[in-house]
Amino acid sequence: MASLRGASPKLRNYFRDNYIPQICEALLCGLLVTCPEDPLRYLEKMIITIIQSGLENLLWDMCIDPSLKPKIRRLSETYLEQLFGLDDQLVTPELMIKACTFYTGHLIKSHFGGWREVAIPRINQEAIMAEKMNKAIAHCKFKCQKLVFNHWLSYVESHKERLLASLFRLRQIFSIQRQKVILAKWKENARRKCKRREENLILNHELQLRNWKSKATDEKSLGPEQSYSEAVVTKPVEFDISALPQEAITQIFSYLTFRDTIRCGKVNHSWMAMTQSGFLWNAIDFSTVKNIEDKFVVTTLQKWRLNVLRLNFRGCFFRTKTLKAVSHCKNLQELNVSDCQSLTDESMRHISEGCPGVLYLNLSNTTITNRTMRLLPRYFPNLQNLNLAYCRKFTDKGLQYLNLGNGCHKLIYLDLSGCTQISVQGFRNIANSCTGIMHLTINDMPTLTDNCVKVLVEKCLQISTVVFIGSPHISDCAFKALTSCNLKKIRFEGNKRITDACFKYIDKNYPGINHIYMVDCKTLTDSSLKSLSVLKQLTVLNLTNCIRISDAGLRQFLDGSVSVKIRELNLNNCSLVGDPAIVKLSERCTNLHYLSLRNCEHLTDLAIECIANMQSLISIDLSGTSISHEGLALLSRHRKLREVSLSECTNITDMGIRAFCRSSMNLEHLDVSHCSQLSDDIIKAVAIFCTQITSLNIAGCPKITDGGLETLSAKCHYLHILDISGCILLTDQILQDLRVGCKQLRILKMQFCKSISVAAAHKMSSVVQHQEYSSRNPPRWFGYDSDGNRLAETHHRMQLRKKTELLVKDTFSSDEESSDSNLK
Length: 824
What we know:
- It contains 30 helices and 20 strands.
- With 824 residues, it is an alpha/beta fold.
- The chain has a 20-stranded parallel sheet, covered by helices on one side.
- The radius of gyration is 53 Å and the shape is elongated.
- 32% of the residues are buried.
- α16 (424-433) links the parallel β6 and β7 (439-443).
- Keywords: Cell projection, Cilium, Cytoplasm, Cytoskeleton, Flagellum, Leucine-rich repeat, Repeat, Ubl conjugation pathway.
- It holds the Pfam family DUF7885.
- It comes from Cricetulus griseus.
- Component of the nexin-dynein regulatory complex (N-DRC). Directly interacts with SKP1 and CUL1. Interacts with TCTE1/DRC5.
């Protein structure tokens, strides 16, 4: 091979061009690996195969059987070329021999062991196979056992689970059955106790009624000049109130009115000493006393001048000299002289000079002029609350005086209702003088415009409460101007220029607003409710007479975050509101306390059932709805209602009222006026079950008789307000019963009671604080004539609806006045 290195180039090119080294390499590898029995025939066969495949596809392992091909790298094509001396590299024969020897030894080492195992049969193959078979059999048995065990384990576990489920189901069935038995027994016991309680209540009622009748009979026999209480004071006194601690005595007497305190002081010397505590004379209310003498007022003020802090002369007609006596009260802080027609500028001069510490001053409906306005900043530097409602004799210049001297810069509450003489300049003067105003009330002022509000809020940026009632020219512009203030409470009423636009960005302009009263604003639609739904602090919403409000808008309102804190919702006369909105209301409003749905005619007993599930409710108004006695039975499930109004609900019956009263032991206010189908049975139900009632309205119920009111007088001793207008069967007897039984009665309305005489009504007026009486026949809108016969339904409903709307507005106004008084 080495001799070819010195061969001619022609010979060397011949070897290279005809793939002689590659052919020899393939044949040699085949011989080494295959080791055929006949090498010549093997070479002949392989040469034919190479010829058929072509020299271009020649591989070194082409002649090796595929099953015997070794897993080694391919031999480099240059190795045999080097052996034959066809390469151009200068490799010495020694290096080539060494490389070939290493390569051959590596091949023998790699493949000889495998060839030996294939070519030479094993001697102990049977023993090895037997051992392998035993291992395979053992492994198969183990796998079978494992499979069987897994099936058995899964069966046991599933069976155990079924047993546990069956056991749990049996326990559940047993528990349910036991609960059913217990519940049935509890229901039976509760029903028995309820029946026993009702029987005891009825029995006690009959006993109390019998005792009360005997007491009333005895009082009649004593004559008008001697009361029953005077006749029974024959027993010795078992308890002396003077033995109580002084703090307890003072607390007890603090609940008495001025007139009652004076009367108690005339009992004896001990009681006179108890009424001399200075704390009891911190507040004196002369407005509740009728026909009081000027001399007594002057004496009282002079005696307690150092203790008096609050004085109320509302509606009193005293001489100027009497009012001057107020100047002796140097520590006076609150003064109410509203509706005092005898009050003059001269009287106010004396009062202001002697009482520099006044914080609250009510001058509403008086004849004061600019002279009094000039005194306010000079003598009342700490004045915080000023009421000038319906004072029409001062001018814009009088308001300018508020900036004189120290000024009224501490004023936080101002009421200018009915002061139509004030112009834009007057409001500008207020803004310059009283920049700290927080609560502004301007009612009954048709001359109020947007410009007045704009000039006011330019400097009064702390306004948090605005009340504009009877101001039809206020529009969205005024609402927009108020965005510079931090409003908490707004109230508009009877305004047709307020639209949905004012609420469009209310969450950004008034994020802290919590009271919204938009009464009789008929241009508001569901869009306003959608805008209000994002207010997180809103607690009171009144949309009375907003007739465009519907279920869709109310549901959008309740879907927002406002439903979490809302506690008072008034939807009176929103006739488009129906059951879907009330169902949503019961689901979302968990803190709602007061709900008014007067004249929402589309409500059915389904809505009443949802209302009964609202356990947070304490007051509900369903007047003018189609609620039936079945609905009242559903409403009786609530058990926590304190105020219920069912006026004009013509579908309710005595049975429904009785079922409701049976479970409403805490009821304090009940209004069933203009339910002409009701009779004395409801009075008996109220007297038996609702003894804590303080207000009862049965106006327009012509079937009520003296017997029903007698029962009421015998049991309901906490009654404060009673309206029996239109009860044509009542006579003078009920007034005597009320005087004996209802000692705490304060307001009595007896309009259109033809059977009650003028003399009896006049006598009753001295007992109550407020009384309304007329002996005329009931008007047509009551729905019946003077004999109790029903009139035409259409005329009755139309007239009653108008009257109801007026009552709603009056009630709303009174509620607002009470809240304002609490604020003051």
